[in-house]
Amino acid sequence: MPGTTPRGYDYPLYAETQDFPAAIQELAEDIDADMDALYDGNTAARNEPTAIVAQSFNVALPTATDVTTTFDTELYDNAAMDNLGVSPQVFTITSTGLYLVSATINTDVDTGSVAMFVGSVAGVVPDIATVTKGGGLPFTDLNTVALTRCAAAETIRIIVRQNSGALRNIISSRLSVTKVAP
After folding, report:
1. Whole-prediction pTM value?
2. Is 122 buried (19+), middle (13-18) or exposed (0-12) by CB count in 10 A?
3. Which pLDDT score is estimated for 122?
């Protein structure tokens, strides 16, 4: 009976009758099958629905008002999840599954207290992630990354709210959605 490596490759034990050409051929076939499976898995992962959009213009951010970010630049979309010409504020999920959602906003000046809400308009998980920054903290951007289960046809957006008492601007924002599991 041959020995087996942790990856499932068979090899002859010392006490067995040796047939070197057959053992080398079996090893080569096992490695080839293993590499094919790894390649197929990597290809499938790269082909999962993914989209990244960005905003490259200023969006007014009045105080004490919810503002839904608007995107104008598609950086990548292999699953038709964004349609900037029709609905530049949302992604539409095309395949039910577990998604990695990443969102970033940058404001023009320190806005005091600010909150960024990443969520579904009317879907399975209405609140994917909420990030807040207290007043007096000297930075102008918020970032979040979350894993969430999404259903097909669900839409995802970013909403921002600040309470500095003055008009501010969102100078850039970015939303990325990638399916990572069924």
Report:
1. 0.72
2. exposed
3. 58
